[in-house]
Design a protein that fits this description.
Elements (H helix, E strand, L loop, with lengths): L1 H134 L4 H131 L7 H19 L12 H9 L11 E2 L3 E2 L1 H10 L9 H4 L4 E2 L10 E4 L2 E7 L2 E7 L3 E6 L5 E6 L2
Antiparallel strand pairs: 1-2, 3-8, 4-5, 4-8, 5-6, 6-7
Helix pairs in contact: 1-2, 1-3, 2-3
Length: 419
């Protein structure tokens, strides 16, 4: 009986241990998979966050480029508006000059016709009429007066005709000048239109690129959200497995304790009449309890240059008469307006951009009333160097090249001091 009781207790303990071992193996496999899945999701989440950060940095840089292009477009549209006003004024001036030229030519023709009639009359009457007029004089004084009168008539006609011819030439020259200036403004208008098309094309591409970044960001954020959900789900699995293991361990410990208690009770019954054997039996029971407890285990739980304006003006004036070349920067072989300004100031070690629009933002703004020699006088699509006394030196156009002239010959949009 004693042997049978011990064997039953041992069998019960072994069965419980094997069941626990199998359950622990299953739980360990489930938890290991959950931990592996969690670690994989954490690595993928880290990579997704790096992608999100990179996309956001690219978006920020691209937005800065878009903002700069927007500013350029706004400035260009302002210049186009100013240029259109100047063209309207130039067209009105051309109409008036054309009318003035027609009047002057008509007056010249009328005076010329009148003079021809007088000459024809004198020619047809011949020298006899002139001689009769002179010989018919009452005295020498009258004779001299008549001679002087005839001379005065000829002199008057000649002077008046010369005067009208000069007027016609002046008006014709003015008309030619206005037509040249109008042609220059029209050429500038075409250039502005090309710049506008180019800017709008660039902006459209950059905005499309921003849209691509938006799509990439949405995709990356969606992936990151999925990885977060995976991590949360795997954490729940791990926590559930840990709770299950604790419960199984608690259950096993209870069963082991109950089995030990039953074994002790059975042993006590068997030893009821054999007091001498109590010590050995108690020792054996103690061994079983110790073994059971050992098998149970525990839960695993971010301009001052020193150059004088007079020096700049003197140097710039050396090149008056040299040609104007679109996009050029050579003071001798040809430069456009901004290329001329850039190269003049470069001689003094001052770096300026090759762009009339960009030059409007260089240095500091001053009023035209306070302009000094060496200041930049900025117009719509044009720039010049102020000489003082209301005069400028600039690469004006292909027609006249590098020249000097009045600072107010066009609308001034800005005066910048870079010295």
């Amino acid at each position: 009986m004693k042997g049978n009781g011990k064997r039953k207790v041992l069998a019960l303990v072994l069965i419980s241990s094997f069941a626990l071992a199998n359950l622990q193996a299953v739980n360990a496999s489930t938890m290991s998979k959950a931990k592996d899945a969690k670690e994989q999701a954490e690595r993928e989440l880290e990579e997704a966050n790096r992608q999100i950060e990179a996309i956001e940095q690219q978006q920020s840089a691209l937005q800065g480029e878009i903002d700069e292009k927007d500013k350029e477009l706004v400035s260009l549209l302002v210049n186009i508006g100013i240029l259109e006003g100047e063209l309207d004024a130039k067209n009105a001036q051309l109409v008036q000059v054309t009318e003035d030229l027609a009047v002057a030519e008509q007056t010249e023709a009328s005076q010329y016709a009148s003079m021809k009639k007088r000459i024809q009359f004198m020619y047809e009457r011949g020298d006899t009429a002139m001689l009769e007029a002179l010989l018919g004089s009452a005295d020498m004084s009258d004779f001299l007066n008549r001679v002087e009168y005839v001379s005065d008539v000829y002199e008057y006609d000649r002077n008046l005709l010369t005067q009208y011819q000069a007027t016609v030439q002046q008006v014709a020259d003015l008309k030619s000048s206005v037509e040249t200036e109008k042609a220059e403004l029209e050429a500038m208008q075409e250039e502005y239109a090309l710049q506008q098309d180019s800017l709008e094309t660039v902006l459209a591409k950059k905005r499309a690129q921003m849209g691509d970044y938006d799509n990439q960001l949405v995709t990356a954020q969606a992936a990151a959200d999925e990885f977060k959900q995976t991590i949360i789900a795997q954490n729940e699995i791990i926590q559930e497995e840990e709770r299950r293991i604790r419960k199984e361990e608690e259950r096993r410990q209870r069963e082991a304790a109950e089995a030990a208690e039953r074994a002790r009770a059975a042993q006590a019954v068997q030893n009821g009449g054999s007091g001498g054997n109590g010590g050995g039996t108690s020792s054996g029971t103690g061994g079983s309890d110790s073994s059971g407890t050992a098998s149970g285990g525990g839960a695993n739980p971010g301009y001052t240059t020193g150059v004088s304006g007079g020096s700049v003006v003197s140097y710039a004036c050396q090149f008056v008469g040299n040609p104007y070349v679109w996009g050029g920067t050579s003071l001798t072989n040809g430069a456009d307006c901004s290329g001329f300004v850039m190269s003049v100031f470069a001689h003094f070690g001052i770096s300026l951009p090759h762009s009339s629009a960009a030059l409007q933002g260089c240095g500091k703004a001053v009023s035209y009333a306070n302009a000094q020699p060496g200041d930049l006088i900025c117009y719509s699509g044009h720039v010049a160097i102020y000489m003082g006394g209301g005069q400028i030196v600039h690469a004006q156009s292909t027609a006249v090249g590098i020249t000097t002239g009045s600072a107010t010959y066009r609308t001034i949009v800005a005066v910048r001091r870079v010295l």
